[in-house]
Predict the structure.
Amino acid sequence: MSFYKKIINKISRKKQYKHWPGLIEGYKKWLPVNDNTPVITLQEGGTPLIPLNKINSIIGNGVKVYAKYDGLNPTGSFKDRGMTLAISKAKESKKEAVICASTGNTSASAAAYAQRANMRSFVLIPDGYVAQGKLAQALVYGAEVLAIRGNFDKALQIVQEISNKYPVTLVNSVNPYRIEGQKTAAFEIVDTLKYVPDWICIPMGNAGNITAYWKGFKEYFEAGITKKLPKMMGFQATGSAPLVFNKTINEPETIATAIRIGNPVNRDKAFIVKKESKGNFFDVSDDEILNAYKLLGKEEGIFCEPASAASLAGLLKLKNEIPKNSVIVCVLTGNGLKDPDCAISNNNSKFKSDIEPSIEIIAKAMGF
Ligand SMILES: *Cc1c(COP(=O)(O)O)cnc(C)c1O
């Protein structure tokens, strides 16, 4: 065993739990919690890192791609990683209500964790631009949903001002505990692979997640657990790419509603991540996003939401620039079930309806 592997085995291996206890328990010593913190958990984290064998053969050149499938968190997106900590800390300081602006997933997650902690949750969403599954979740979990005539950026501005004036805690990714919780995804990647990938491909909206991943990789590096850092590759949808074009987009548009954000709150942090990690940011068109989305579903058996597929779309766009034998992780941020409308309108599968329930007719329809 190499020296490097031995160190990783010795220091970094998370305890081998029979049942994953949730990320606060699993990574306690890396998180700002103490014995008095009430842990509000749905056993989030511990998500799979799945090899993408068909994608590997498309890219070739010895490149190995994995999906960090964070759509398998309890409310179906990586937002749960940040929310378990943000809500636990709000509960610790005796807060009674939380608020967020959301393109959908933050509201679903905030609602679930807040209600679990017996707190009220208020969510502001852009009317008409939240995928069905996400809205359903917020309502079922018991959030108080306020749909505004305006986009996400406007909603965020309002909740920031409200949380300054009224006794409600803001749980958008400006809340530092969100980033702390989300950084555990980077720990999990290293703990699973036992080495650091060359690239991390990640979709960017407010750029909280790319900031969090980078923080996680840096913490393992600074603790001497790892000996290198990955390049952080961030992707945005072309119609909604303020970090790629370095300007605020007043009317962001994309089919990937989770990243339909024109004025990211973590803009400065994102540019620091890009510089420090020697990474890069690119835009991908809605067509490229949908192509990656369909590939993941049909070729790999992974159903993610359109925003998540931006990570693979970006990687495929850079196909010819990937160094030989690279190991790459694409972060799949949310579950495909969140946005059934998109799925039903964008697939290459056959769907025949109104068929007579007869064996001969069905066998014929099957091509026999
Ligand atoms: C929130 C979200 C993003 C964007 O994450 P940021 O931290 O805002 O950059 C991407 N994909 C999905 C599915 C999301 O819910």
The chain has a mean pLDDT of 95. The radius of gyration is 21 Å.
